[in-house]
Amino acid sequence: MSSFSTPLWAPLVPKLPIRFRNTTILSVFYRSDRERIARELPPPLEPGSDLAVAHFYHMADPEWFGPHFEFALQLDAVLPATDVRGAYSPLLMLTTDGGLATGREIYGQPKKLGQPRLEVRGDLVVGVAERNGIEAVTATLPYKQKTAQPSELTALFPFTTNINYKFIPDIGGQPAVQQLTARSFEEVTVHECWQGDATLEVRPHAQFPAHRLPVREVVGGFYWRVDLTLPFGRVIHDYLKTE
């Protein structure tokens, strides 16, 4: 068998890398409660700060999956006694089964299906993360009023390195894979980047509990368009080998 995924004759998960072209992103950085962030991080991860970021994506031309929308909530996290710092993902939502399966099976991302969207309504950029008919997260940003440098986003914290908790049980229910993984985008080309005063609202939702990380202060909002390559990642902590 040579297929990387199943079904064998029509695999759902691609063998990476794959290219995402013309991806538009609304990113809103905010301060939450450091102690709440710490509770969401699997040990031994620790908060890098009190910052979180909500990303709303329109994947206009990704290989393999086709156009779709995605939402990601990420937390500034560090792995003690290492140089690893990045964005830990407690919640993700998207509209495609291929992206969902790839994120969960390869990286361990906690992806769920939903109805996230990113759109321009007149002079306003609007991002929504909706599931079960409830808008769990909503963000807004004035449309293209002030240019920004891409370095201004990563200066807040290095979110381009994504950290995830990967857990896969074996057929008997025991852990087969239990890891912290990390992945960094490659061949990134930013075509445009804009910033402005953003708003961010989170609402209680039992099946998508972004409200566990309340918004205390919005730090900044960015609207940007990018091409990037999605590669394989690496294991930064293996629970089964350290027990």
Q: Could you walk me through the main structural features you see in this protein, from its secondary elements to its overall organization?
A:
This protein is mostly beta strands and about 240 residues long. It has a single domain, classed as Acetoacetate decarboxylase-like (Beta Barrel). The chain has helices spanning about 35-40, 95-105, 150-155, 240, and strands at about 20-30, 45-60, 70-80, 85-95, 110-115, 115-120, 125-130, 135-140, 145, 160-170, 175-185, 185-195, 200, 215-230, 235-240. Strands 1, 2, 3, 4, 5, 9, 10, 11, 12, 14 and 15 form an eleven-stranded mixed beta sheet that branches. A four-stranded antiparallel beta sheet has the order 6-7-8-13, with no helix packed on it. A hairpin with a 2-residue loop joins strand 7 (about 125-130) and strand 8. The longest helix has 11 residues, at about 95-105. The two termini are about 35 Å apart.
Element layout with pairings:
Layout: E1 18-31, H1 34-40, E2 46-62, E3 68-78, E4 85-94, H2 97-107, E5 111-113, E6 117-121, E7 124-131, E8 134-142, E9 146-147, H3 151-154, E10 161-169, E11 175-184, E12 186-196, E13 199-202, E14 217-230, E15 234-238, H4 239-242
